[in-house]
Structures are given as C-alpha cells and as structure tokens.
C-alpha cells in the first residue's frame, strides 16, 4: 500500500486558523508538528497487494479543538485522566473526473471512526472521522461513561466539527474554482437518522453552527448551484412546492431567473430539513421556508418577468390549490391570460368564453379566458374561476345595464349578432333577484336596447328597430296595434309574450279602444299591401278585443260609429260592409253575399251591437248564379268570379235540402258556365279524353257534379268499352253461361286447392312454355289510376303466375268456354282450360290474364269489380296500348312488368279473396288465408318430382313471395329438370321423337314412335335421376278406339324409373296424366298417359265399365303401356355391366338394384286395375323374345376340376360368375332359361358345368317366375324328372367325368 499527496492547499477557515494560533502561542502546548492545520490535502492511496490494484482519493484535513476539548486538555493535571491533544480529522472520498484534473464526490461511503488507526466503529456519516478519542481497552468502542465520555463529546463538538466545517469550506472552494464537479452542497452532510448515537453530538454541533451563524460569522454553505449563502440569507421552498409535479422545477427556475433579490432560494432535501428539526431548529427552518401564499405573492408580483409556459403553469397550480390565501392573491392581481390581448386580466373582469354571458363581449375587450381543455378551459378550472368571480352564467344588474348601453352601437354593426346579445341580456335579467320596483329597472326601461317591430305602415324603411322598453307594446297586442304602434320583436328576442321580465321592463300591454279601431281602419285602407293571413289575424284579434270591451259594459258608440263608416268585417281576404253579411251559413258570394265565418261567430256581443243579419235562401243562390252567367256570358270566369261561384254552389246551394237541379249552371274546364247536361266529370284524370267532350271544372267535386246532373268520364269510357266497335281499347269478352252457379259446382268438384297449381302448370305446359313462376304478392297496390272505385279491392294481395309463352287466340277463346275447354279436339294437349282453369275461383273472384303484353283479359262473374260488365258479358278484354297502360298504370303494375318479360309470356293474376270480397261473392264465402297459401306452396315441395317429371315442355317451376314492405320477390323453391345424364344418342333420340310428335299433331296423323332418355330433377338440396321411355301413336290400327267424338284421340304414354335419389323416401309408383293423380298404383315405376280422368281430375275414369272412356284407359294399359314397359325392362337390363366376374351373392344384389326391382309383380300392394297390364308385360316379353331374363355362368381361371365329393355337394365358394340376358324361348329346350330354387344352391356349380342357362334364385326372381306363369307363359324349371334326365343324356360332356354323367342320368 502506498500513500501519495496529490495536492495541498491552504484552508480558507481564517477564524479557526487564528484561534488555533492564539492557543498555541500561550507556550504551554508543544505540538512538534503533529498536524498541519493550515492546509488540506488530497492524497492517493494505492493498494497493490490485490490482483487488481485499487486506488482511492481522499480530501484530508485535521485541526485542534479550540473550545471545550482544549480546555479539558489544559486541565489534564487536575484530572485523574490525562488526555492527548484534542485533534480531529475528516477524510472525504473523491474520485477522478475522467482524464481531467477535476474531481467529483465518491458517494455511498459508510463512514468509519479512526483513532489514527481504524476502529471497528461505523459512524453512519458519509465520511471518515479521526480523533484522539478515549476508547475502551479493546479499542472496539468509544468510552461512554465518566470523564472519557465527556472528552469524546467535547472532541466531537469541537475539533471534529471544526475540521468538518473547514472541509466543507474547502469543497465549496473547489466547486467555485471548477475543480470539483457534480457536487451539491449537501452531498457530505450528515443524515441524523442514519448517524450512530455516539456521533450525534458532532451532528448536532454541525447543524447548530449552520443554524445559529449570524452576520460576518455566517457559514455560507448553502447553494442553489450558482451562488452560496448562509442560513440567514437563504430561503427554502416548502416541500409541497418543491415536490409539486406541476410547478416544482418551475418554481426553482423562476426564483433563479429573478436576479439577486431571489437568488437565495435553495432546494433543501427533506432529510436535511428533518435533521435541522431533530436538532431543535424547527422554527428557524420554518421562518426560512417559503409557503404557497408567500410563494405566490412573489410570483404574482413578477409575472411579467416569466415566460408564458412558466407563468401559466404557476397560475394554473394556484387555481388548483383551492387555498383561501392564494385565492385572495388570485383575485387581487391580474394574472389570467385572455384572448386577443397581451395583458393579463383580473378574475372578476374575466369572461368564460363558453359561458352564457360570453356573447355580450367582444374579443377586443380582452375579457375572454384563453386556453385549452387541458389548462385554463378545463371544466374544473372554469368552475374554480367562476367561484372566484369570473363572469359565466350570471351577470349583476349593473353589468347588465352597462352591456345594454352598448347595444345600440353594436346594432349598427351586426344586427344578427346583436340580437343574440339582447336575448342573453333578457335571460340574465330573469335571473336577477333585484326588486321589480328598483330604480335600476327604471334605468333599463329608458335604454333603447329592445328590438321592436315598426308599425306596418312604416316598414318601408326598417322593420325592426331598437326602442326603449317603455315605448313598445307586448307582442300579444301586436294584432290590435301593429298598424300604428311599435311591438316587441319576439322572434328576434325569443321570449314569450307573457314573460314577467317584459312587465318588469315596463313594456305596455293594454291599448286604448281608439287605437284598436284605428288598427281596423288602417287594415282596411291598406289591405292590398298585406298578406291575407295577417289581415285575418288583425281582424280576429281586434274583434275579440272589442267584444271584450263591450262585455265589460263600456261605451259602444265609438265602435258603432266606426263599423258603419267603412267595411268593417274581414271575410276571406277582404273587408266587407256589415249589411252584406249573414251569420248562420257556411259560404260567401262576392260582391253579393257574405257569410260570417264560424271562427268569428263567438263575438256575438259585437255582432249584436253592429247589427249582422241572419241567413240567405235558395233563391238568393240561383239568382247569384244567373247574374254571374249574365255578366260573363260565354267568357271564362275570372279566378275571382270562379271562387264566388264555388262558394255559392258548394257552401250554399248544395247544402240546402231539396236544392237538386237537373239543369244547373256548372263551369266547364275553361271556366265557362254551361248546362250540367252538356258536361262530363273527369273522375279518371289520367285517362285521355275523347274529342268533343266538355269536362266540368276541376274545382267541382264529383259528388256535387253528379248531384247536379253531370255524367262521369270513367262511366262514359267504360260504357263505350263494352260496346263492340265503339271503344278504342276493349272488345267483348267473358264467360257466357250461367256463371256463378256453374263455377261454384266446378270448384266443388275440385275439393283440393292444391290442384290449382297443377292446372296452371298444365296450362303453361300445353302452351309450350318452358318455365312457370308463382309469385305470392302480399302487397296492397296503389288505387289511384284504376278502373273505378269497385276495382280497389282487386288491388290487394294476389297470386301471380307467369309462364314464358304467350296465349294464342284459340287459348283465349278456350278460357271462356266454361266446362268444355278450348283444348277439345286439339291433339297433344292434356288440360281443359274452361274446366281446369275454373279451379282458380277457389282463390279469386276476379281472375285476370295478361298475355304478350298485348291483351288484358278480366273475368268478373259476380259483376262486382269491373264497371259496365253484364250477365251476358261478365268480363272484358283490353288491348294494351301505351295510352291504356298510362291511363290505368296502377292496374298494369300489379302484373309485375318490372320483374317479368310480359311481352314474351303470360301472367295470370288471381286477387286473393278477402273478407270484403267474400261478403259480395256468389261463388264462395271462404276467404283465402295465409294458411291456404302455404298449403299451395306445400303442393310444390311435397312431390316436386311428380310435378315436372312428365311435362312436355316445362323444365323449371319456381315459387316466390313479395312481402308487404318489399319490392323484390324472395325465392322459396325452384324445381328444375335437366338432361345431364342423357347421352348424345339419347338426346338425339328425344329430339327426333319431339319433332315426330309435332309433325303428327300438325298433320293429324298418328304414326307410332318412341324414345328413351335420362334426366335429372333437382328441388333445393333434393336430387334424383331417372330413365324415361315415351311412346306416341297406335301400335296396331285395331287398337284405335272410337271415342264417340269428332276427333281422333292418339295414345301417348311414358314410363319413368327412378335410378337414384339423394333422399331416403321410399318409392311408390303413381299414375300420371301429365301431372300426378292422387292414387298410387303400387308399380315400381311411374306411368303417364293421356288417360280419361274423372271431373275432378283426381283419378282415372271409373263410373261404368262399358263406357268408351273406360275402354280407352284399358286399351292404353294393355296395348300401349305393357309393350312400352317391356321395352323399358330391356333397356335397363342391357345397360347393366355384365362382363365383370362377380361372386354369386353379390351378383344377385347387383341384379336386384339395377334391373329386377323394376319388374312389375302382382301383389296386394298393386291396384287391381293394373293387374292385367302387368300380365300383358310378361306376355309381351315372351312373345317378342326380349332378353330380360338374367342367366349366370361361372368363370374358371384356371378351370377347377371337380372332385367326386364336389359332384354331390355345394358349389365352390370362390367361384365368380358373369351375367347374360336370355329371352323366354320354348320350354325344355337347350336355349331356354332354367329357373332354380333355393334347393338347387348345393348343386348350382354342377348345374352350371352342364352348360345350362341358369337363372339364379332370389325372392324377386321367384316373383317374376310366378308372374310369367300367371300370364300364361311356359317357364322352364330345374326338376329331377325323366325329361330332365333326357336333356342331360342328349348333350355332350366334353369336360365331365363319366361318374358325374352317370350321377345325372340314373
């Protein structure tokens, strides 16, 4: 370890040096240069015994005690203990500041006590202390009892304290010379809380020396970082100020920037403050501490010297403190920034910019509080400033007066802005609690600040002016004084006329009667210059005032005099004389007759006073009309005269009993008075008017015109439309039989409403449409541009049915032929329009058809909805010209022209029967409910395949809804059929078939033709695949049946086998007549043909067995359907894969799925009416040698040699078979198929080896075998008979052993 003195400087504690010198001069003390109390040294100590040498720097200073410790030393001969010289030393740790010569404090030292050598005593001081301590014998502690303890205390208070203070003075000097960096004055000050008890005397002595220094002896050991001072010169900020997050740093900065007078403000750490207090100097610290009031007294006096941010931060903190003393200062000094002004403002002059009173001040006045929502304009601070006196929501009356006096000048600059100020002032006046009799209110009433409306006769200049409140009338008096007097402008003032503040401001409310009479006179004299509504209001309120005046028994003479001197009564836009008015009527005629309006009738006292007459008579009215005709002749009535006429006719003549005139004078559309017989009333203004027709004037209501003998145009037009050759729009159309009764009978024969959709689908298919779309339109359509009042009920909810094919004239005629049908005698058409179509009367009483966007046909059998229909012609057919569509636009729109291409299709519209319709209906009393419509919808979803399967043309069926509040339809279900599964050959075959059928239908021939193809049907997520076989024409001429009619009926039939489904419903065959009939056949396929059906179209004809219709149906089944069915079976069998060897059990399953399941078999589940057809199928198979019987033969690869055991046992389980198809040849021949039974399973392999054509046994094949036999077809079966043995002996056995041959021939 080495020790090197790095620096040595003379100490600057002159007082201590001088005292020490004086003591040493006495001569009784010999020091022998023990210490150098004149100099302080910085020493370097290097410990190089460690791996890494450690270097320490210390500022050392030692001195002698000059007080109590020196005195005790001098009395050493008097005491039993002898003490050494009172020496005290301080060692402060330092560290190098980089490569410079500057130093910095090395903080964090835990101080230790030395007695020239270290003692094991921690002092709790931030430096080491050395002294001539009295220690215990083991040098582990200071002596704490007796004289030695007193010595240690004296040494700590004297020598060590002096050395410590001198050391601090040296550190201060180094800091001032720039040799010591990062040093705060309190860096090495002791924290009393941390110092050991033995060394507290030194701490207390130090703080006492600091606190009690005065004048020249003061220790300038406090610093703010720039200047140093003693405790009597420095000030400390209160901890609340210093630790305040908002202004703590700003406060120090502010005082530092204030110059010498405030540079003594020092930051005092809390532990030093606490050390002073613990050492007994609380009051001194308190006296030297600056609290908030003192702090802000200084701040507010020096606001101008601060930057804006610091100033505002300090002021904001003062506001937030909510301290009474600080609040006093806030109110006293101008300290708040304002908008548009550099000067600060006192709080009481401040105006909240968002407050109620803000509108009363200008920005230039420097009164508006400036800031943002994060500083002065935050809600809490605005509330604080308001509490301190800032003007915000209220204003003292003296300030209100001051602001009111500024209004006239502001009015000249910006009236709109000024009005808002006046409104605010009035609102503030309401809040005033000052007595209404106060002289301040009188002062306000004399200031011209109140907006007033000038008299109407003076408004050619300015309508609104400022007046003294005492000079104007209340707005509620306006109508009785406004011609000559000023009234409060309540619109600009935005105050109710009854508000008490007006009374407080001395506004007038009770004008004299002469003023009111002048009001009426001026209104009459200048009536052309004012709005009639204004004149009416003036008259009404004036009459009310005068009536009240008379009821109060006041003098009536002024009123009577005025009433007789000029037109006094205001009636509909003009003043009239009293003598021309009657009370008890509701009309007027000018200038002949006037009726007192009902609104004025309540002023009876006034009318009695001035003498109003009673009522007018019919003769007065007729004479007035004649006079009008005489005056105007053939000229059009002027607007004024027309109004006179309307008043007489409508309010007078029309309301008198027995006033009906058959030939009354009525103005035409040009206003020329004409005889009512020559006019027509236009009750359909959207319709074109024929030439030569004179219409009554538009102001004449329909009921009045009809009352006086005018015919309506709509009645006239519709009447003409129903006359053949007269109307440009319509020709005669309708069902001409006994309609309502017959229709009722027909729909009774159609008990199920579900069949309605089938009939409409059939109609569309017969019309060769490819799509049909049902739309349930739930909306109520407009009833303005319609045929007439009767038609309004038809504009409601309806079922709309669109198909993309237009009707021919023949179709339209067929619709009218009730029960017979327009398709009678038409080859290839299934339905009967007249009969089937009438099922729609289940839903509607007024069905209509729009086809090709060319014809609109309406049927009204009840004669309740169409104008002009008759029993002979209960309907109309209109030509849809553009003019017609415009005239009856609301009718046309119900056919959904925006949703469908009406020009290329046909739209049926069936207005649903409502309760009001049912009340009038002779067809049905049942309304169509939502349940009924959902039942119709269910008809589509229950059997979607059946609806579309056999249709000739329809490939898509759709059902949609349009809800009441919607415009577009919502799709509910779509059923489509596509020929995706059909091969190119199949498609070509179907196209050729369709072409052939169309050619035959057009030529009247019936040459037979058939086709087979595949299709796919989808309905939502349900899909199915089908094979369809169709037939057209007679197979043999003898099959043709004379049906007793004048046309030839050609057989048409089809069969449909379901190949696959995506849903699990079990399949049950049904009979179809294009559309499914309700009854099930029990067959494994669907059968379609042009059967004769009953009147309800729900079943095949069954009334009598000998009828031609029954014979026709039976002929179809036996002669057409049976051979067609045999062909279908042949197709299904030949399309099955048969070249893949398969184990026999699996092969049987494949046969069942692909072919056998479609064979018809007579059973309990099959309707008896089809039994003969089934037998004929099997006969057809046999007679035509159709290969539809499955035979199997095993495949050996390599061939399996049978053993002796195999000859007599079951077939080999690993054998695989292939299938072939065989016809029913002659029995007991080598080529015929042999049906096996379950008993033959054990010898099946052996039988197969013989080369026999074996039919594998299964339950279905057994049924087929029985049906062949039931049909009279000979069936070959395996039997161990002589014939069988003969067969076995007759064939060759090239690969069979003699043993096996003998086994069969024995």
From TrEMBL:
Q: Which ranges form a coiled coil?
A: none
The signal peptide stretch is none
One Pfam family hit:
SACS
Q: Where is the Sacsin/Nov domain?
A: 737-970
Q: What is this protein called?
A: Sacsin
Q: From what organism does this protein derive?
A: Triplophysa rosa (Cave loach)
């Amino acid at each position: 370890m080495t020790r090197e003195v790095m620096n040595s400087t003379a100490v600057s504690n002159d007082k201590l040096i001088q005292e020490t010198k004086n003591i040493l001069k006495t001569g009784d003390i010999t020091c022998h240069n023990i210490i150098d109390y004149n100099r302080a040294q910085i020493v370097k100590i290097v410990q190089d015994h460690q791996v890494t040498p450690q270097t320490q720097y210390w500022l050392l200073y030692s001195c002698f005690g000059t007080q109590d410790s020196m005195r005790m030393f001098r009395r050493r001969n008097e005491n039993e203990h002898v003490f050494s010289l009172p020496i005290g030393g301080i060692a402060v740790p330092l560290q190098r500041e980089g490569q410079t010569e500057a130093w910095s404090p090395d903080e964090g030292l835990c101080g230790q006590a030395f007695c020239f050598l270290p003692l094991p005593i921690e002092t709790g001081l931030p430096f080491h202390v050395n002294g001539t301590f009295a220690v215990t014998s083991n040098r582990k502690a200071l002596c704490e009892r007796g004289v030695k303890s007193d010595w240690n205390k004296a040494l700590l208070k004297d020598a060590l304290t002096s050395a410590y203070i001198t050391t601090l003075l040296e550190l201060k000097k180094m800091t001032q010379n720039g040799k010591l960096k990062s040093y705060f004055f309190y860096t090495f000050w002791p924290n009393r809380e941390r110092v050991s008890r033995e060394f507290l005397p030194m701490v207390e002595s130090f703080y006492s020396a600091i606190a009690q220094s005065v004048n020249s002896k003061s220790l300038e050991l406090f610093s703010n970082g720039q200047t140093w001072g003693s405790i009597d010169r420095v000030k400390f900020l209160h901890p609340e100020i210093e630790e305040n997050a908002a202004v703590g740093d700003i406060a120090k900065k502010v005082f530092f920037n204030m110059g010498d007078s405030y540079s003594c403000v020092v930051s005092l750490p809390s532990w030093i403050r606490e050390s002073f207090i613990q050492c007994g100097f609380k009051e001194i610290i308190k006296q030297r501490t600056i609290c908030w009031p003192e702090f802000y007294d200084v701040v507010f006096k020096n606001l101008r010297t601060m930057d804006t941010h610091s100033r505002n931060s300090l002021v904001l903190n003062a506001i937030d403190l909510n301290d009474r003393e600080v609040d006093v200062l806030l109110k006293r000094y101008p300290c708040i920034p304002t908008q548009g002004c550099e000067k600060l403002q006192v709080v009481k002059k401040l105006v909240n910019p968002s407050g109620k009173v803000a509108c009363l001040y200008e920005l230039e006045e420097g009164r508006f509080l400036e800031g943002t929502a994060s500083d002065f304009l935050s809600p809490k601070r605005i509330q604080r400033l308001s509490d301190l006196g800032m003007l915000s929501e209220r204003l003292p009356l003296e300030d209100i007066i001051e602001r009111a006096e500024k209004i006239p000048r502001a009015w000249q600059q910006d009236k709109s802005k000024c009005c808002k100020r006046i409104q605010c002032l009035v609102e503030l006046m309401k809040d005033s609690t000052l007595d209404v009799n106060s002289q301040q209110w009188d002062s306000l009433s004399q200031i011209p600040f109140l907006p007033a409306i000038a008299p109407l006769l003076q408004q050619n200049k300015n309508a609104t002016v400022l007046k003294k409140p005492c000079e104007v009338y209340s707005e509620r008096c306006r109508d009785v004084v406004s011609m000559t007097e000023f009234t409060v402008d309540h619109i600009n003032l935005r105050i109710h006329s009854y508000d008490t503040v007006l009374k407080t401001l001395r506004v007038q409310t009770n004008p004299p009667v002469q003023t009111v009479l002048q009001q009426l006179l001026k209104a009459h004299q200048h009536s052309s210059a004012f709005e009639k509504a204004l004149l009416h209001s003036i008259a009404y309120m004036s009459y009310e005032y005068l009536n009240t005046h008379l009821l109060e028994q006041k003098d009536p003479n002024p009123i009577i005099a005025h009433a007789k001197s000029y037109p006094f009564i205001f009636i509909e836009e003009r003043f009239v004389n009293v003598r021309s008015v009657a009370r008890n009527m509701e009309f007027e005629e000018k200038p002949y007759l006037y009726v007192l309006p009902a609104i004025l009738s309540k002023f009876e006292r006034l009318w009695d006073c001035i003498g109003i007459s009673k009522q007018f008579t019919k003769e007065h009215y007729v004479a007035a009309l004649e006079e009008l005709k005489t005056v105007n002749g053939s000229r059009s009535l002027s607007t004024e005269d027309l109004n006179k006429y309307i008043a007489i006719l409508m309010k007078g003549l029309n309301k008198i009993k027995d006033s009906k005139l058959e030939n009354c004078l009525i103005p035409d559309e040009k206003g020329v008075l004409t005889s009512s017989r020559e006019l027509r009333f236009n009750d359909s203004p959207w319709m074109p008017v024929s030439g030569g027709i004179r219409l009554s004037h538009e102001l004449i209501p329909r009921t009045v015109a009809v009352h006086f003998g005018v015919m309506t145009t709509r009645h006239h037009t519709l009447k003409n439309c129903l006359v053949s050759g007269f109307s440009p729009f319509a020709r005669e159309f309708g069902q001409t039989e006994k309609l309502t009764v017959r229709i009722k009978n027909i729909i009774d024969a159609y008990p199920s409403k579900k069949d309605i959709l089938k009939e409409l689908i059939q109609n569309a298919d017969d019309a060769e449409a490819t799509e049909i779309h049902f739309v349930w339109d739930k909306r109520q359509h407009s009833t303005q541009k319609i045929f007439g009042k009767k038609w309004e009920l038809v504009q409601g909810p309806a079922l709309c049915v669109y198909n993309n094919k237009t009707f021919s004239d023949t179709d339209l005629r067929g619709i009218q032929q009730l029960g017979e049908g327009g398709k009678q005698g038409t080859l290839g058409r299934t339905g009967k329009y007249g009969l089937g179509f009438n099922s729609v009367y289940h839903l509607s009483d007024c069905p209509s058809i729009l086809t090709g966007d060319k014809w609109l046909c309406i049927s009204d059998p009840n004669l309740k909805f169409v104008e002009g229909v008759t029993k002979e012609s209960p309907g109309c057919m209109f030509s849809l010209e553009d003019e017609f569509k415009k005239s009856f636009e609301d009718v046309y729109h119900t056919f959904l022209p925006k949703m469908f291409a009406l020009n290329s299709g046909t739209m049926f519209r069936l207005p649903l029967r409502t309760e009001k319709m049912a009340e009038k209906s002779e067809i049905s009393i049942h309304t169509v409910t939502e349940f009924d419509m959902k039942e119709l919808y269910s008809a589509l979803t229950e059997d979607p395949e059946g609806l579309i399967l056999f249709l000739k043309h329809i490939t898509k069926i759709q059902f949609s809804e349009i809800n009441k509040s919607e415009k577009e339809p919502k799709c509910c279900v779509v059923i489509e059929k596509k020929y995706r599964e059909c091969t190119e050959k199949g498609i070509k075959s179907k196209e050729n078939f369709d072409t052939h059928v169309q050619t035959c239908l057009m030529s009247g021939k019936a040459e037979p033709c058939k086709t087979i193809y595949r299709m796919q049907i989808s309905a939502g997520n349900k899909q199915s695949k089908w094979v369809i076989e169709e037939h057209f024409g007679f197979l043999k001429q003898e099959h043709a049946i004379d049906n007793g009619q004048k046309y030839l009926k050609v057989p048409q039939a089809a069969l449909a086998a379901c190949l696959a489904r995506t849903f699990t419903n079990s399949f049950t065959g049904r009979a179809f007549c294009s559309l499914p009939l309700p009854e099930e056949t029990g067959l494994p396929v669907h059968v379609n043909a042009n059967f004769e059906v009953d009147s309800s179209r729900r079943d095949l004809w069954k009334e009598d067995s000998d009828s031609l219709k029954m014979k026709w149906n039976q002929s179809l089944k036996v002669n057409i359907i049976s051979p067609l069915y045999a062909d279908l079976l042949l197709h299904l069998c030949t399309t099955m894969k048969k070249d893949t060897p398969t184990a026999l059990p699996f092969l049987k399953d494949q046969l069942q799925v692909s072919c056998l399941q479609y064979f018809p078999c007579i059973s309990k589940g099959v309707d008896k009416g089809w039994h003969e057809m089934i037998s004929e199928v099997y006969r057809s198979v046999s007679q035509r040698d159709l290969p539809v019987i499955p035979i199997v033969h095993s495949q050996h690869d390599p061939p399996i040699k049978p053993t002796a055991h195999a000859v007599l046992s079951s077939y080999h389980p690993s054998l695989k078979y292939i299938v072939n198809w065989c016809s029913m040849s002659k029995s007991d021949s080598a080529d015929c198929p042999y049906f096996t039974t379950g008993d033959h399973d054990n010898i099946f392999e052996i039988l197969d080896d013989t080369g026999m054509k074996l039919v594998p046994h299964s339950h279905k094949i057994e049924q087929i075998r029985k049906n062949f036999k039931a049909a009279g077809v000979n069936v070959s079966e395996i039997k161990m008979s002589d014939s069988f043995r003969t067969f076995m002996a007759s064939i060759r056995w090239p690969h069979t052993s003699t043993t096996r041959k003998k086994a069969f021939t024995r």
